[in-house]
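Homework help board

Subject: predicted structure for assignment chain

Our instructor gave us this sequence and asked us to write out the predicted structure in C-alpha cell form, then describe one feature. I got the C-alpha cells but I'm not sure how to describe them. Can anyone check?
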Amino acid sequence: MPNDQAHVSFERVADGHLPMLHAWLSEPHVRQWWGDPDKEVALIRDGCATGEVDGFIFHVSGAPAGYIQSWTPSEYDEEPWAKDLPGDVPGVDIFIGPPEMTGKGVASLALRAFAQTLFAAGAPRIVIDPDAGNRRAVRAYAKAGFVPFGEWIDASGRTLLMELTRTEFERTT
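My C-alpha cell output:
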C-alpha cells in the first residue's frame, strides 16, 4: 500500500503508451466501467491529440500505475448534468491499470496529486462522475476528498456527481 509520502508523477500520453493502455483497459476491473478497450484507446488517443482531454499515465514511486485525464464537462452536450458548470471547472477520470495495484490507496493518492496541479493552474473546483454502482471508485474518490453534490439518472444508469473544491483541498493539505 502506498503511503502519503509515495511519489506520484505524471507523463503525458504518447503513442508509445497505447499498447499498455489497451492492456489495462482489457483488465476486467477496468473494462467493467470503461467499456470496449479498442474504442476507449481510440477515444484517449484522439482526445489527447485534439486537446479535448489532457491525458496522463501516472506513476507511483516510479511504477506505471494507471491513467488519469482532465476535461471540460460543460463543453459536452452528451453530459446534460454538466450544462450549468462553469468552463473553468475540470472533470477528471481515472483508472488503476495493474490489477495488483487496486485496493491499495493508489487512486486517492494519484487524485490528490493531480488535484494539486489542477488547482495550481487555477481551477476553483474539480468534478468526477463515477457510476453510482462503482463502490470501489466512490470510496477512493471520497478518500481523496471528493464529496457528492448530486446525481444523474438516465438510460445508462445512475451517475454520482462528486466535487472537490480548492478551499476544501487546501484545508486538508
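Reply (TA_rk): Your C-alpha cells look well-formed. For the description, you could write something like this. The chain has one domain: 8-171. That's the kind of observation they're looking for.
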